[in-house]
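Look at one such:
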Amino acid sequence: MATAPSSPGRPSGDAVAGGVPPISGRQGTLDGVRAVAALAVLVYHVASTAGALTAQGGAGWLYNGGQVGVPIFFTLSGLLLYRPWAAAVLEGPRPGPRARTYLRKRASRILPAYWAAVAVFMVTAGLSHVSDLRTWLSLLTLTHTYLPDPWWRSGLGPPHLGQIWSLVVEAAWYLSLPATAAVLAWYARRGRTGGVGARARRLLRAIAVYAAISPVYTVAMFVPEYRPLLGLWLPRFLAWFAIGMALAVVTVWARLEPGGPVARGCATVAASWRTCWAGAALLYVIASTPATGPLDLVTPDVFWTSVLDLVLYGLCAAAFVAPVALAPAGAPGLEAVLGNRVARFLGRISYSLFLWQMLIIVGWYEWTDRQFRGDVATDLPLLLAASIAAATASYVLVERPALRLGRPRASSSPRTPPPDPPPAAGRDATVPGPAGR
């Protein structure tokens, strides 16, 4: 643990190196978290398209838990994107990132590669709708899950882009974040007394209220009658983003009071990562059962299963992400598991892996005429290799060049905390999460 004084203020370099969580710069272990989430969802999509989830006998139902990749990615978004605003509130009276700069970076991060995937879909599997302007516009603007009468069979979108519903949710949250952060900052600063701890506690209380919107909204999904399309919209998932936002507040708080109880709590959680992950594994198994909804590609259609879906997957994501987010840079065990070269590489390409996987998976099963009659054991290695190859090409040819073009000039850099000494400075924005349902 850090030995620096616990008074508010920016910790010294020795304190930073002593064990408090990093709050900026590229974190290799979080790349590993992205990799795990992306692979979990890819396995889920292969299993569901092969028909393994509903096969009689065996443990194919366990694949259903792969949907946990969605709350993991939403949690990462809350952690990494809200963190600069949390730092601005807790470090003192200074403004957070400029909304214009933030939104430009988000657009350059997600849109070029996504538009490329949409274009490929429209000239291949979606060729019969290539002249449909409404389809083009709704897909390109990430608004297709709001259409009341689309041509596809479910509200998720075309089968080959069925996972994109979660990107629609991410995009809506990106747009809402500056205003949300402003309201949270106003509430945290309204008290005239108290230092870092008082502001942090007010922020956490406000984030808890923000998270409570999700269960209230879930009630609205079923009253006066069940409306499944509402289950694909942002308010349903605010609780999962709030988990990451709360972690962002805690990490900044720990760095500002490196010898305080919050920093010690972070160290305890980080050191207990095996126990946290064991709990996450147990929650994964429970969430895989029909307790969270039908074992197929539909949203939960009963109120209590909808609530359990929200709670169990959220707790699972929290138990998996929290020890990584709260760990100091270079934590040996976590670095070995999540910070190795393979995990970091898969984390870097995870957004493209998300974009291209369903085109490849659904296309493969349609081409072989084995949809819902496949074999996960033989199909998964092939589809995983093909998806990684496509993701690598997309990352090199589209994502990376777009990110370079989207970087602001030095004079227009957003006002964020200076990078932590241990990790190399880099992009700290998460990638959108692959979809489960």
Remarks:
- The chain has a mean pLDDT of 88.
- Residues 376-406 form the longest helix (31 residues).
